[in-house]
Design goal:
This protein has 493 residues and is an alpha+beta fold. Helices cover 41% and strands 20% of the residues. The protein is built from 16 helices and 18 strands. Strands 1, 2, 3, 7, 8, 9, 12, 13, 14, 15 and 16 form an eleven-stranded mixed sheet that branches. Strands 6-5-17 form a three-stranded antiparallel sheet, with no helix packed on it. Strands 4-18 form a two-stranded antiparallel sheet.
């Protein structure tokens, strides 16, 4: 649903993303945040708000918030306030959640990304620190429910957008870009299956020019595929309801991947329902300019800046540069390969082409793991032999598929010698003997007078047929560029 108008309606979407921060301990206690522990083994007295306990702010969680603010061009508040968000749910042991309301630590900012060739920008309202709740476990096979409080007190940054998104495709592109940023700067591991990166989409529809419609919040979208399916279904459902004369009721809904539908979970609360008030146990959070400067100095080059450098420094198209900076590992691999072979565009083509194709076919292999299988020096050696005309692109793909990905990852010290040995062993070296090539071309021209006549009559397909015959006669060893040049010269004579 990429069109701004769907059945005469404009779609309006805002996002709230709960990003679990990559700290070793919880936001207000020393309890571990490690995933996968036995239920209720990582919830201490502070997390449970037992009498006599007091929360103490985790400095690293604040540092993560500062780094996010710097990455997104936000204002980092020198003083922010923690509040109690009051609601009652079995997995909320305190009966309230410590969050930030009136004065969050990160204010404003934006996330920019490309949807096709079009640049989009989503404005941010805020990103505030808060603690996570526990988790309700429903064991249907025994008809019982339980509460696991290991997650209670885990540090989160809730990142809230303006209602700037206008389609499910934009929503997914925004979420992917934000996911890239938080993992790039190292504040979140981004594991959606484990709940480290959870998105809530506030969806509404309206006729163009009318006030914003009533929104329904789709909670806990933990995959990009389900995110798009859920938003698309919700858009269709809301339009159908309005067209049938029904009013949309504000609600929180869940997406069921099995049915492909959303279902209402509860009436959506407003801020007043939570009875926010400043937390009396936590003093205001002070972030000094020196602390901000310290975090800025620790940050690596951001993806947008790196992509711009790839365009200016390596002469890459913007599309290539944006694709190659989808992850730190991919960007580092490209840069190492490009510098080793001196062919940045060819390196980009191979990484976005054959390498990405291979990774898509192999489940659960990260780019870091791929670099251990095929070090960038190895790919660079292959690219060098393609660039200097020793082998064709087709031969390069054959070597990549049959040899490179199966070779020991440590052979990069003699990468060129290895590639040359494979080329010789498989007889893949292109024919660069002009005399031998001309002899083959002359024989093909003599044997195909009809194609020659058709080409001279203006039919380009006849030329391609002649090239095919020459490549076949040379057993694929002729240099295609050289074949084209020599053949055209002979046919023009």
């Amino acid at each position: 649903m990429s069109a701004k108008l769907i059945q005469g309606y404009e779609v309006v979407i805002g996002f709230e993303t709960h990003t679990q921060l990559a700290t070793q301990s919880k936001i207000f206690s020393r309890a571990s945040t490690a995933f996968g522990a036995e239920p209720n083994t990582q919830a201490c007295a502070v997390d449970l708000a037992l009498p006599g306990t007091l929360p103490v702010m985790n400095r690293e969680a604040v540092a993560c918030a500062i780094r996010l603010g710097l990455a997104l061009g936000s204002h980092i508040a020198p003083v922010s306030i923690f509040a109690r968000k009051n609601y009652f749910y079995p997995d909320l042991p305190k009966g309230y959640q410590i969050s930030q309301f009136e004065i969050p630590v990160v204010q404003g900012g934006e996330v920019s990304f490309y949807l096709g060739d079009e640049k989009k920008t989503v404005r941010l309202v805020r990103a505030h620190l808060e603690e996570d709740a526990g988790k309700s476990l429903h064991e249907d096979f025994i008809g019982q429910s339980g509460i696991d409080l290991n997650r209670a007190g885990t540090p989160l940054l809730e990142i809230v957008t303006e209602p700037d998104i206008r389609s499910s495709e934009e929503a997914v592109a925004y979420a992917k870009e934000l996911h890239k940023i938080v993992t790039w700067i190292g504040i979140c591991d981004g594991n959606m299956q484990e709940g480290s990166f959870r998105c809530d989409a506030n969806v509404s529809v309206r006729k163009p020019g009318q006030p914003l419609g009533t929104r329904r919040e789709i909670k806990n979208l933990n995959s990009f595929k389900f995110m798009q399916q859920a938003i698309d279904y919700e858009i269709r459902w809301q339009i159908e309801q309005i067209e049938d004369g029904h009013a949309i009721q504000q609600a929180t809904v869940l997406f069921d991947p099995d049915t492909g539908e959303t279902r209402a979970m509860r009436t959506k609360e407003d801020a007043a329902d939570y009875r926010y008030f400043p937390d009396p146990d936590l003093p205001p959070l002070h972030v000094s300019a020196a602390w901000v400067d310290e975090e800025r100095a620790r940050m690596a080059e951001l993806p947008r800046a790196m992509a711009a450098r790839f365009v200016s420094g390596y002469g890459l198209p913007e599309y290539d540069a944006t694709t190659l900076t989808q992850s730190k590992a991919m960007a580092a691999y490209f840069e190492a390969a490009a510098q080793a072979c001196g062919q940045p565009k060819l390196a980009s083509n191979w990484i976005m082409g054959e390498v990405s194709k291979y990774l898509n076919a192999v489940e659960d292999m990260s780019f870091d793991e791929f670099a251990g299988v095929v070090p960038p020096a190895n790919l660079a050696a292959l690219i060098t032999r393609i660039a200097d005309g020793t082998i064709s692109n087709a031969a390069g793909r054959k070597i990549f598929a049959e040899d490179l990905i199966h070779a020991p990852g440590t052979m990069h010290d003699s990468a060129m010698a290895y590639i040359d040995a494979v080329i010789d062993a498989k007889g893949l070296k292109q024919m660069n003997d002009t005399g031998a090539l001309e002899k083959i071309i002359d024989e093909v021209i003599a044997a195909n007078p009809d194609n020659v006549a058709q080409f001279r009559a203006g039919k380009d397909k006849a030329f391609n047929a002649l090239v095919g015959q020459i490549m076949k006669a040379s057993k694929g060893k002729a240099n295609p560029a050289q074949v084209n040049e020599v053949l055209r010269a002979k046919l023009a004579g």
